[in-house]
Amino acid sequence: MALEIPPEKKNATKLDTSLLPLNHSKILIPYIQAMAAAPFALEAVQMEKNGKAWNILEIGLGTGILNSFLHDVFSSMNITTIELEEGMYEIAKKYFGLVEDNYNKIIVGDGLLYLQKTAGQSKFDVIFIDACYNTVVEVMCPVEAFLMKENLKIIKEALTKNGIVVISVLTFEDDKLSEVLACGEFRRNKSRFAKKLKEIYEKFEFYSEPNIE
């Protein structure tokens, strides 16, 4: 997501940024770039339009950068997003251009409870989890509920046969990473995954280097 400055205003000394249009096809934040690219690099979803509608679940809306990118760039995605805090949902709508329609549904509520209530009803090709604490703890993201084995089983059951989970991880303790996230495809063939990830970055015009160490 980026603000677009019209050519006639590029030399202006003052700008009201609230009036500038938002370009949702761009992502400037590195960790969101990585989250957006991962499902394509792992071939859980495809770049090409092949007539298939991909079902996406996003737990944790934030300001809606990932949500708006996927909705803006890929018309073949049915996106459901669960956001715990109504205030964050309102901020995304008011200041970050969040658009809701038949293909982009936002629900204010608990993501884990949503999965429990819809168990057996919905299957997703990709589940994004970007749910974090708002206080400083050893593992900021994801919240502990998404690390518990019984809840991971619920998440797994909500996936399609080739579906994947993409988790945002923020920790101040390096030794905690192994407890939080392990990508099977990455561990099996690191060089292949790295190559595909870089290809996706180039297609999306993400001008940063993916860090897969």
UniProtKB/TrEMBL annotation:
A Pfam family found in this protein is Spermine_synth
Entry protein name: Methyltransferase domain-containing protein
What SUPFAM superfamilies does this protein map onto? Answer: S-adenosyl-L-methionine-dependent methyltransferases (SSF53335)
> Record's InterPro entries?
SAM-dependent_MTases_sf (IPR029063)
The taxonomy runs: Eukaryota, Metazoa, Ecdysozoa, Nematoda, Chromadorea
* Annotated source species: Elaeophora elaphi
So which domain of life are we looking at? Eukaryota
